[in-house]
Design goal:
2 domains; 59% helix; globular; disordered N terminus
Length: 344
């Protein structure tokens, strides 16, 4: 799968705003433009706790002890990981005209009318293209309802990014259970924003933007698959809220992600970047690709928490250690919003 996508998708570098160029709300909040290192383990811990607390709607906050239902879920996931059975089938993905569209975008003589015609054959893709064209990033003015107009507004590179993301987007069945319904849309939206952030940050680390984009995009595939396991084990009547449970859940999910990535024949550098997140408390031990993914993950979670009102943007500890380019990357994510998901 990776091979044919790589042939069709060659992303150009998305240039961030000039270093230190803080505008609007960010300037008012006093966010620092300084150069410097990377976010600390403590910073990431606070943001991760807030993100999963919000994603799973653990309104009373995390507890310290794993309760019996959480233990049963972890046991089922542990057995799945140890079984080494193929897991890619756990993730259903978008079918349809996507490969044809990527081929058209790779061609030098494609027409906007031809692209619009092919897009119109896929109702999910139609909605995604119109949503992107009407986002604040592309169109702060009038509402766009025509596919032809939307294709013109988004442009070739925008369509490549959108379609490549949809190739790997799982079909999330919102009727499958409580945990999938609560968390999966938010988790996958964070994956998409992490992919965008990682792609922007990659050149600063001399990393390939395409591989950085893919690492961000697939990093939570195993977690989405784990939610279906949790729904099967439990009736969904209890809130998942213990810190120890989420630590173990994420470790199991990361193994599943790497297994799925290898079944999809992703580059080993992409898999390694995901695997390294288990050692994220030792930032200096990470590869450049692992550091890009870690920072993209952090910035995308902060952006989603701020957008949803679950994190105050003016907290100085959030920005400590971030470079000017990292802050600019965070600003760039402001043009993106959570995606709507259709039941499969």
């Amino acid at each position: 799968m990776y091979g044919w996508l790589q042939r069709f998708f060659q992303p150009a570098r998305s240039e961030p705003p000039a270093k230190g160029a803080l505008a609007g709300d960010e300037a008012a909040a006093g966010l620092p433009p300084e150069e410097g290192g990377e976010v600390s383990w403590e910073q990431r811990g606070v943001v991760n706790a807030s993100f999963y607390n919000w994603a799973f709607e653990a309104r009373d906050g995390f507890s310290l002890r794993v309760h019996p239902l959480e233990k049963k879920i972890l046991e089922a996931l542990g057995q799945l990981v140890k079984s080494r059975q193929p897991t890619a089938d756990m993730v259903k993905r978008m079918p349809g005209v996507l490969p044809q569209l990527l081929h058209s975008l790779r061609s030098g003589n494609f027409s906007g009318a031809d692209l619009a015609r092919k897009i119109s054959h896929d109702v999910v893709l139609v909605q995604a293209v119109l949503r992107m064209a009407n986002s604040s990033l592309h169109n702060p003015g009038q509402t766009i309802t025509s596919i032809e107009h939307a294709v013109l507004i988004i442009g070739q590179e925008g369509l490549r990014q959108l379609i490549s993301g949809m190739v790997f987007r799982p079909i999330i069945n919102l009727d499958s259970g409580r945990y999938t319904r609560l968390a999966a849309p938010r988790i996958w939206s964070q994956s998409e924003q992490c992919a965008i952030a990682s792609r922007v940050l990659a050149p600063d680390y001399d990393e390939d933007p395409f591989e950085a984009f893919l690492a961000g995009l697939i990093q939570n595939i195993g977690l989405v698959a784990s939610l279906s396991v949790a729904d099967k084990v439990a009736a969904g009547s209890e809130t998942l809220c213990s810190a120890s449970f989420f630590d173990s859940l994420l470790r199991h999910a990361r193994v599943l992600t790497c297994n799925i990535g290898r079944e999809w024949r992703f580059p080993e550098a992409v898999i390694q970047a995901v695997e390294e997140q288990d050692a994220a408390f030792e930032t200096q031990s990470l590869s450049a690709a692992g550091r890009v993914l870690l920072l993209g993950d952090y910035l995308s979670k902060v952006r989603m928490l701020v957008n949803s009102g679950h994190l105050a943007e003016d907290r100085p500890e959030i920005w400590e250690g971030l470079s000017g380019n990292a802050v600019c990357c965070y600003q760039e994510l402001k043009g993106y919003r959570e995606q709507e998901f259709l039941a499969g």
